[in-house]
Amino acid sequence: MTNPQESALFYPFGDTLPGPGASLEVAQGVRWLRMALPFALDHINLWLLRDVQDGLQGWTVVDCGISNDATRANWERIFEHELQGLPVLRVVVTHMHPDHVGLAHWLCERWSTPQRECRLWISGTDWNAARMASQSTTGFGGDSAARFFALHGLNDPAALEKVRARSNYYSSMVPQVPQRFRRLMDGMELAIGGRTWRCIAGYGHAPEHIALHSPELGVLISGDMVLPRISTNVSVIDIEPEADPLPLYLRSIAALRALPEDTLVLPSHGKTFRGLHVRIGQLEDHHEARFADVLASCRDHAQSAADLLPVLFRRQLDLHQTTFAMGEAIAHLHALAYAGRLRAEPAGDGVLRYRTVDS
Ligand SMILES: [Zn+2]
To answer: Which pLDDT tens digits describe the chain residue by residue (359 residues)?
Structure first.
């Protein structure tokens, strides 16, 4: 959902964005790239960090873009004009979603030499999840996803058919994931270009998302955990149907309050901003308000996740957005049900509905 209080955040670069094939320096040795995405969310930000590895000057890339010709062409222009003639030394990926890990395989292969492998650095959980998803149907489409959405009240046959047909959704954007990786973990410190970047694990959005913080630069590469304009997608998906990701997400962002308020936040979508604590507060308020909406809606009549889409989203959604919205609606229902504030009422029609428990 679009942030109604975006004006409380500060954008130090105003409306300036890196153009296609170009980069913009946002801190010393840190460059911002922006690549197009073929969704309603139409871009992703990637980062170039000036680095030295094994005495070799070059760059660390953070996140990759999806696998398609346009993104590869964009990268080729970056290689030609933005790297000062230096190589990519390693590829850090914040998490396993297609727009982040899609081209990791291509980048690592493109920049490996007989002397030195350009390595993927990612959390172990997300490496495994990405490897599996690129080889099978998980969470993003296929029969199991369609059944899961139907259980939660999505009964439009055309929409369900599209979900069923979308079994290669992930692998179309992530055809391959590197066979070898270096494991990122919470608290791990990376030396990048002589500076320390600390890994901060976050949960609820991806299996084990890694954000990177440089205390010296006062910069946080927040990935998808904190975005200035839209709220992070926190979804229950069919492969983990009883999951309760919203409390995990809320705990993860609350922990980021330990970082200074004047931290420069580099998000994966939207613009580089200051106002980390303000944004965390806005996101907490946003979810509290959605919890209140759900409890109010489920008081008189038991509601399914699909019933709640107009309450929670209040706008027209395309199929891609509907599947994300369903996952998010279920996440809100689960959080409230696990907290004892809603009770599930399985109905004769096979749809799971929830009713508010009055305390
Ligand atoms: Zn993501």
So the answer is: 688 899 999 999 999 999 999 999 999 999 999 999 988 789 999 999 999 998 999 999 999 999 999 999 999 999 999 999 999 999 999 999 999 999 999 999 999 999 999 999 999 999 999 999 998 755 567 889 999 999 999 999 998 998 888 878 888 899 999 999 999 999 999 999 999 999 999 999 999 999 999 999 999 999 999 999 999 999 999 989 999 999 999 999 999 999 999 999 999 999 999 999 999 999 999 999 999 999 999 999 999 999 999 999 988 888 888 989 999 999 999 999 999 999 999 788 999 999 999 87
- The structure tokens 């996440």 sit at 331
Residue 359 CA, ligand 1 centroid: distance in Å: 36
CA of residue 20 to ligand 1 center, whole Å: 21
Place of tokens 């990701």: 245
List CB contacts of 147: < 8 A, sequence separation 6 or more. 238
Q: How far is the CA of 36 from the centre of ligand 1 (A)?
A: 15
For 165, phi then psi, to 5°, come to -75, -10
Cβ neighbours for 314, distance < 8 A, ≥ 6 positions apart: none
Give the start-end residues of each E strand in 195-279: 195-202, 209-214, 219-223, 264-267, 273-274
Q: How far is the CA of 237 from the centre of ligand 1 (A)?
A: 14
